[in-house]
Design brief:
20 helices; RNA-binding; Gyrase A, domain 2; about 550 residues; alpha/beta
Length: about 550
RNA sequence: GCGCCCGUAGCUCAAUGGAUAGAGCGCUGGCCUCCGAAGCCAGACAUUCCGGUUCAAGUCCGAACGGGCGCACCA
């Protein structure tokens, strides 16, 4: 939050300075946190950017701006320095740091959160796996990223809803029902070959077994219905165990099957609309969407010549529905194998009268699974896959969620199942959780003393380790903004590991409980703040915060 | 062939166009009469190649090479 305080004031100063020099006041300068070899708190690059249009040495400009900052911001800035090619390095007054620390202690789990931010109403759609089999490890990555991103955006004050789009109609459902029926018949002694294009997984057998145990007449069983019901409840359980929940489960049949008074579905209507608006045309008996008009590679079929709609038709109606529900920003998490859909979905958004930026797609690369150093194939068709449940059961929810948040969505993720199973210090989540355990241990110890007080003098926290730690705590908000800006929550884990690093260094260098009651009391406040931020961060990551670790 | 993503340390990955490119694992060597050693300290090791833009490029642009994915009136 300190950064926001500084940058808000700087904005006025810089823009005035640019104006007085006849420059475009909207030159995009930035306020950065310098690399760790520089001891300044913030660095400003405005002088370097102004150097060229002003035809002036950047260091001279830096000096001019620096003088103004010192004069105008003396309540916040302690000193400045011109460095490198023309950076203005800013040193914040210690008092500001202590004030911020106090704020953490008071606001606790609300620290750095924004109560209301009416700019956007956001819908985050993720997972949305078809109910034809259990979630696999790739879905887990999407679930972890989507859920944490939604949590961060909510924390920052956006009105956020999390939604799962359920493809509960269409051909795949028929195949699923058929697969279950054949397994059922085989169980009853029927000699029927199982088609290779049907679902091969063991879970189909399990469903069939359950049905067989009910002793019903085969004609009374709706195999499709039963299979979907069974699989869906499994998916919901797996997500629940993974700490992921949804605000809305949106069913495809609501737009593709349900009819209004005139006997039309939403899919019927949007295709008609597109045709009326000349965004769709008939060719070879099929209805085509003119997506090339908005940058797609080729036009796409909405309705086949046999009259059946494609998935794109449902998707178009679905996204129209999202906008109609009042969402101003749609965020879709998509596995990289679906990247081809981005162009056509954005085309639909634009045809519906929205900007292509109203729909953001976060593409996450697929998870390649390693088993004993060998890559393992994944396919729900062949039945050879690792389920999310299996990994969560073995490695634990915390390790899995932290692991999935460790890398940027754009990076391919190599998930070593053997490594994930290990409950050991090789897993970085323990490094962060250990901070909380150590803090708790000190708190327990402190209860034995009567000389510690609540009303403390935070200015006693003046060593390098303490200052570094406080600064790290204060950059929590900057990290959250970065997640917002990049639509990626992986900065959370990186931040938490840095914070843990600062804490462990502090811990090694400075004893909290000493003979000096004033100092001990102040340091206890510091570790209380550390615990607050660790908890806030881990909670956003969907990871629990144990009070103690077990060996 | 066309399109999208990626190429950074031995391995897996970070790095809002900024200063001396960071972690974890692995490796070498140190640190527990003291709040938890699941920790700390020290050491070795990296931007695939070639051009360009920029005051400044791992980051942007172009080309080459390598890896993943996608290119259906499938879902």
């Amino acid at each position: 939050m300190i950064k926001k305080l500084v940058s808000d004031k700087l904005q006025i100063i810089i823009s005035d300075y640019f104006k007085s020099k006849g420059l475009d006041e909207k030159i995009k300068y930035s306020l950065e946190i310098p690399p760790k070899n520089i001891d300044a708190d913030f660095a400003l690059n405005a002088a370097m950017l102004a150097a060229k249009p002003l035809k002036k040495n950047p260091k001279i400009i830096a000096q001019e701006i620096s003088d103004i900052i010192l004069k105008e911001m003396s309540d916040i800035i302690d000193k400045t320095a011109i460095a490198g090619a023309g950076f203005i390095n800013l040193y914040v007054k210690d008092l500001i740091l202590f004030k911020e620390l106090q704020k953490i202690l008071i606001q606790k789990d609300k620290y750095a959160s924004v109560s209301q931010n009416n700019k956007e109403k956001i819908l985050v759609e993720f997972v949305s796996a078809n109910p034809t089999g259990p979630l696999h490890i790739g879905h887990g990555r999407g679930a972890a990223i989507g859920d944490s991103l939604a949590r961060v955006l909510k924390y920052l004050g956006y009105a956020v809803s999390k939604e799962y789009y359920l493809n509960d109609c269409g051909n795949q459902m028929l195949v699923l029902g058929q697969s279950t029926k054949i397994r059922y018949q085989q169980l009853k002694g029927g000699k029927i070959d199982f088609p290779s294009d049907h679902y091969q997984g063991d879970y189909i057998n399990d469903i069939a077994k359950n049905l067989a145990a009910q002793n019903k007449n085969i004609d009374e069983i709706d195999f499709k219905e039963e299979a979907v019901k069974d699989i869906l409840s499994g998916i919901k359980n797996d997500l629940n165990d993974f700490g992921v929940d949804f605000d809305i489960w949106f069913s495809e049949s609501d737009i593709a099957v349900k009819k209004d008074n005139s006997g039309k579905t939403e899919v019927d209507k949007i295709c008609q609309d597109f045709e009326n608006m000349k965004f769709a045309y008939m060719q070879d008996g099929a209805l085509w969407l003119k997506s090339t008009q908005f940058g797609d590679d080729k036009d796409r079929v909405l309705r086949r010549s046999d009259g059946r709609y494609t998935y794109l038709a449902s998707d178009a109606a679905y996204h129209k529905n999202k906008f109609e529900r009042g969402f101003t920003k749609l965020i879709n998490l998509l596995g990289a194998d679906h990247h081809g859909y981005i162009a056509r979905l954005k085309a639909c958004a634009q045809m519906l009268g929205h900007s292509k930026d109203d729909l953001d797609v976060v593409l996450y690369q697929l998870v390649s699974l390693m088993r004993d150093g060998q890559p393992a194939a994944m396919s729900t068709r062949t039945g050879e896959f690792i389920t999310l449940k299996e990994v969560v059961d073995e490695a634990g929810k915390d390790a899995c969620r932290f692991f999935f948040l460790l890398r940027a969505p754009d990076s391919q993720l190599e998930f070593d199942i053997e490594l994930a199973k290990k409950q050991s210090n090789e897993n970085p989540v323990f490094y962060v959780q250990y901070v909380n355990a150590r803090c708790n241990s000190i708190l327990r110890e402190s209860k034995k003393r009567a000389d510690l007080k609540e009303d403390v003098d935070l200015t006693l926290l003046n060593t390098k380790e303490e200052r570094d730690l406080i600064k790290r705590l204060c950059s929590f908000y900057s990290m959250l903004s970065l997640c917002d800006k990049t639509l990626s929550p992986h900065h959370i884990t990186a931040y938490l590991m840095e914070l843990a690093d600062s804490y462990h260094r502090f811990y090694e260098a400075r004893r909290v409980l000493t003979d000096d009651a004033d100092l001990s009391s102040a340091r206890l406040k510091l570790i209380s703040a550390v615990m607050i931020i660790i908890k806030n961060g881990l909670t956003l990551a969907g990871v629990s915060v144990p009070d103690q670790m077990y060996k």
